[in-house]
Amino acid sequence: xxxxxxxxxxxxxxxxxxxxxxxxxxxxYASGKYVKLWQGPQHPGITGNMSVELTISGDEIIxxxxxVGYLHRAFEKLMERRRYIQCFPICDRICVPEPDINEYCLxxxxxxxxxxxxxxxxxxxRTLDLEMARIANLLAGLGGQAATMGxxxxxxxxxxxxxxxxxxxxxxxxxxxxxxxxxxxxxxxxLPDGFKKRMLExxxxxxxxxxxxxxxxxxxxxxxxxxxGVAIIKPEWVDEYxxxxxxxRSAGFARDxxxxxxxxxxxxxxxxxxxxxxxxxxxxxxLRYIEILLSIDxxxxxxxxxxxxxxxFMAKVPNVLNWKVPPGETYVKLESARGEFGYYMVSDxxxxxxxxxxxxxxxxxxxxxxxxxLIGQNFADVSTIMVSLQICPPEIER
Length: 398
Description:
The chain is α+β, with helices and mostly antiparallel strands. It folds into 2 domains: 4-67, no CATH class; 75-360, Orthogonal Bundle (Cytochrome-c3 Hydrogenase, chain B). Helices cover 43% and strands 12% of the residues. The chain has 15 helices and 8 strands. The protein has a 3-stranded antiparallel β-sheet with strand order 1-2-3. A 3-stranded antiparallel β-sheet has the order 6-7-8. The two termini are 32 Å apart.
């Protein structure tokens, strides 16, 4: 039976049929004209566990309600009960596909409150780390986009390419997924001997694979039919729902924190941001394909321009087990693979952070906006639409 209490908060977004007065009754469902289905919490449309409650009429979605709570959570509160250095093994879990963005924000927020400036070499190494993480994330996301339409071979190609980046992460940091390479004051180490050569070889392997993806995925008639003109993001929705990253750039907004508010060494790198107007699934996929190639180019620039030799990579910091960070508040942001990602941090002068709040791109995208854009779509496209928005559930349940 239909439960009115679970009908959601956003009645104005619901596409209820004429004559239902904004609600569907138990009799409406009993008639068989409307059916309630669940997408998830385990399904190919998302990088994590999240469920969407759907009401459909035939193949058309009439209503959608996001349900979260299936993941590990409460990371913000956990970090507020630990010393600053103890927060780093926790913060990575806020975005498993791209954990390094959390390390940077947490480290940089601590440094700003403590008045610490990191060495120049550390800035280059942090930028390298972040672009490697961006490639790893986008490779998995683009492969997932293809896999939701049955093109599993592309998903396998992308995962193979991602392994090349994970090999370099393991060499640089000791870990393949969680790295904890960026710490307050800088980074844990310089590049290993021969790292540049091996990284360049890995980038060549990825480029060769991306050429195959371009040919097989974007020239595929089925992919084009199911993505072009589907789930279009209207320009007026971008600011209304706080959309960022590719979701905003596909709608004509040239917004990227790396350009708008340069951090680390992005102001020393030569690159342009790809923008489009079509704003459908195909366009979002294409822009992410372009961003992978852009990150490859940025890594090559970093490896060529960064300081060479045995240079300082860690500033002097107090005893991290008894570090009383001066009182204050700050907000640090960067451009993640999903768009603006930031940390708001407050210190009260103790050894614990008073408040940590994460601004992830997925919160508004995965709840109010997803519930809106699914209305009127075909039920078969739910997974495809969800992965095209690049929702990361841990960012919601942090």
